[in-house]
# Entry
Amino acid sequence: MDSANRGLVMVYTGNGKGKTTAALGLALRQIGWGRRVLFLQFMKGEGNVYGERIAAQKYLPLLEIEQLGREEFVNLSDPDPIDRKLAQQGLERAKEAIKSKQYGLVVLDEVCVATACGLVSAEQVIELLGAVPEGTDVVLTGRYCPEAIIDMADMVSEVREVKHHYKKGIPAREGIEF
Ligand code: ATP
Ligand code: MG
# Structure
């Protein structure tokens, strides 16, 4: 299907800071038009508190944020089977949400990393994206977006690190990193 109204597949990848926050910016834009947004965070646990989640709970009833991972960091070179299972469940959740047509935007935050380290396969993600209905746009974020996903996406932006304050030893800060 290639009509003007079909759902778009958009990707924010690259090694610089701003991918997840770009997706949140789009979420805000959608909400302004009264659309519901589902923001699924792969590889992140419930216990991690992010400003966006607090904002959603307090002020943004149209924004639903769900963490699909666990607290422990995923070992990217040798992921635990539990991480694989959680990511697979996350993909099922995404499929069901996209099919429901209830959301103007579904964000799969960090799904590119989950794909790159083998928690889900690029084929699975592409199959999911092939079934995006009219009225639902989808955003994927994360470093190392596989070429096959880049090929089928409608929009891809690469955020490239020019500088990051982390390199000066400035640690993660409330309202900036989380
Ligand atoms: P943000 O959530 O701030 O938009 P991001 O989604 O682009 O960042 P990720 O790759 O998801 O970045 O990394 C998440 C965390 O790593 C963020 O806290 C971010 O500040 C930090 N980070 C991102 N890019 C870099 C970098 N080039 N060097 C060091 N830390 C980084
Ligand atoms: Mg991110």
Q: What stands out?
A: The CA atoms of residues 12 and 19 lie 5 Å apart.
